[in-house]
Design goal:
219 residues, alpha/beta, Rossmann fold, five-stranded parallel sheet, four-stranded mixed sheet, globular, binds guanosine-5'-diphosphate, binds magnesium ion
Amino acid sequence: MVNQPKFKGILIVISSPSGAGKTSLANSIVEENENISFSTSVTTRPPRDGEKNGREYHFVEKDQFNLMIKNKRFIEYAEVFGNYYGTLKDQIENLLNDGKDIIFDVDWQGGTKIRNSYLSPLVVSVFILPPSIKTLHERLLNRNKDDDRTVKLRMKEARSEISHWSEYQYIMINDNFDKVKKNIVKIIEIEKMRRNKRILLPDFISKLNNEFEEFISNS
Ligand SMILES: Nc1nc2c(ncn2[C@@H]2O[C@H](COP(=O)(O)OP(=O)(O)O)[C@@H](O)[C@H]2O)c(=O)[nH]1
Ligand SMILES: [Mg+2]
């Protein structure tokens, strides 16, 4: 269904280790670009201070998550750091029907699954690397959201997340937030032009051909 050329939007999958800045980048891009929406995942992780149900995530209990798996509500789901995270199929299809581009903040497992799903013709993937391990560690400490044990665990996980960098189409080093943000928006513009070939141009080319016919018959 999604393979039909009716969807104008593309899907931007962004992955990175925790603390490399992908969530902040995604939020800021969505805030500044009306046509770009965020895929709000469902998670069994408890909300952090300041997080609001339905904004950062839909927070649910494990039982409810399992029921949603059973009811095939997810395009993909994965266990990350001992919690479950899933991408909602209905939400994505509604946004695509509205002509939106959608950003996914998912780990490498989610990236692989979305790339291999029925949505794959619409996917562009971006991996964000930290400029150094020291910066990554500092960012995890400074955001004051996790206890020491969690920070240590995230540093360990970061290494295995980074090992998947080459599975992504675009790789960026986050040494300058605004620059990386601009570059992601540029990628979206460019990828949309590429996909227009398939999606919008057949109709436009027939319109031009009709105008040629009209021009010829009038001259
Ligand atoms: N596969 C998958 N991963 C997700 C989803 N939502 C969030 N994640 C990833 O889960 C990881 C943990 O996210 P979170 O608990 O918010 O902590 P963060 O690492 O500080 O962003 C991050 O790598 C997210 O990109 C999802 O729906 N599916
Ligand atoms: Mg995040």
